[in-house]
Amino acid sequence: MATALLISALTFASCAADGETESAATVKAVQKSPAETTAEAFVETVVEQVVPIVDIAPEPVQLVTKIADMVVEGPKLFAVCEGGVITYDFSDKSHTVVAANDDFRAVTIHDSVVYVGGRHLYQFDGAMLKKLDVEMGADITCLYSYGDRLMVGTAQGLYSHDGTTSDLLMDDVFVSAMVADESGLWVGSDGQGLYRWDGDDFNKRYLLRDQTMFDSVNTLDYNHEHLYVGTTRGMHVYDGGRWETITTAEGLPSNNVRTIDASAWVVYAGTEEGVVSYFGGDLRPVKKLADKKVNSLSRRGRRLIVATDYEGILRQSSSSLKVLVPPVLDTTMDILSLIP
What we know:
Helix content is about 10%, strand content about 50%. By secondary structure, the protein is mainly beta. It folds into two domains: about 40 residues; about 280 residues, Methylamine Dehydrogenase, Chain H, CATH 2.130.10. Helix 1 packs across helix 2. The protein is globular and about 50 Å long. The two termini are about 25 Å apart.
């Protein structure tokens, strides 16, 4: 627009000046009409307002990496936060970020493809986000790979996605966490309790001594025939026959258990006020992480990878704590990275 305006104004001014010079040479005493006077005044004004056209570099976007979710697969880590998707490569210790205008809350890997959830469902290839043409009706809150289907939890229900279509399995429930056992799927909600799906029906599970104990589920994990449920009222362990409740009275740093990793015999739980290990009924604070508020954690070998609100993504070993991804990243909004 600015370029067109400049060319038009300069052409208009040149013609008027040439005409004025020619008229002055042949007829020196010609009176200018009001229309000519107005036109010349307009041209002069336009020319005076033309400014040089310069290339403007895109403004950097400062991304605060308040990590909502994270998944580790082989040499790669994928994490999501409001406004971006982060990739960390353990092989060369580098990280990249793709910024986009969405509040991302969930990430998982299904059939070797990275899926990201926010206001929409996306596939992510490490460099670009591809928005899928599916409508969930509400913000996506969690994602889980279950057999040949991607389970999509939203603020209003649970969907099963087969790569093309999405089927509504559970309505009017804010899905907050999912995990599979040997024959079914456990589904946690924010405010509506804990359910188990056997492929046909959803059955609500609760404790007779306190039916509200599982009302607000933050996280779920399952291994060695034990279900681990992290809630705002502690961690609950189910062995298939009985429930055990673990709270600050037993040694948790906080009753708000935000993330659990049960991928090995030693279970790790991240709370509002620190990380603990759990084995054989014994709770122990984890070195370097005993006071860290974490949203997601994952074991990688003998080290723990933790995602935080305000300290970025950290790697813990027995003797050190290293920042893998800093809490604030300077990036550039890449409009090509978001394919509608």
